[in-house]
Design a protein that fits this description.
Blueprint lengths: L1 E4 L14 H13 L5 E4 L12 H14 L5 E4 L3 H9 L4 E4 L9 H8 L2 E5 L17 H18 L7 E4 L8 H9 L1 H5 L5 E3 L5 H8 L8 H13 L2 E4 L4 H16 L5
Parallel strand pairs: 1-2, 2-3, 3-4, 4-5, 5-6, 7-8
Helix pairs in contact: 1-2, 2-3, 3-4, 6-8, 9-10
Bound molecules: 6-hydroxymethylpterin-diphosphate.
Amino acid sequence: MGIVNVTPDSFSDGGVHLSVPDAVAAARAMVSAGAGIVDIGGESTRPGADPVALEEELGRVLPVVAELEGLSVSVDTSRAEVARQAVALGASMVNDVTALRREPELAEVVAESGTDLCLMHMQGEPRTMQASPHYEDVVSEVAAFLEERLRFAVDEGIAEERICLDPGIGFGKTADQNLELLRRLDRIAAIGRPVLVGVSRKSTLARIVEGPDARVGSDAASVVAAVAAFDRGATLFRVHDVPAHVEALAVAAAIERGTVTR
Ligand code: HH2
């Protein structure tokens, strides 16, 4: 899953794809490089980010989705109206970092349109989530949350086979809690749905390599983290540098199979 943030303030690519032609070109390049889907977002969820107005989010996302007809598009939104209009323009997946909690009516849009859905764990909300994350056992609490949100989504009429789960790396978690989630990702995979991981360029990676004040992880560090997640059961990877991830994950999958042939 290639990331296209149509925002001025995303943590690693803020402002890079703000014009429609730039965002569309980036999305097309990611698909050419092997991305199975591109994730279009119009509201940053980085720590400290404020929500944007509905009209602003619609105005950022829809013109880009409209230009990507024929490609597999995911819309990174927690708003029913944004999802409704993006799906009408051809988006086939909804990626909701609030797991249907910000606007439970988003469930109806997904159920009726039959799109795929990603349910992600977050403790708190973006503005304040990194202030003091707290867990007794981060892995079992994230797993229990995802199991509960999966049940909610299915009860709302969303087909279970269309749902993937995401531990939400960096969303109300310390660096050590993020690493613990990646280390024990098999517990999340054991829920029985495909696991999506978004660790690309996140600050936990930067902290390991550069120290406590570093904010943006490198692409090399991102690739290694994705492969480690693959080894523990992740099958979907939300990434900025698509070519490097496609190459690395192809090799990781071939090693897993023990043969070049797919
Ligand atoms: N991370 C971000 C945004 N959306 N969606 C899923 N499913 N999983 C993630 O880990 C995830 C996500 C944050 O990263 P990014 O989009 O690069 O930055 P921003 O939120 O600042 O736009």
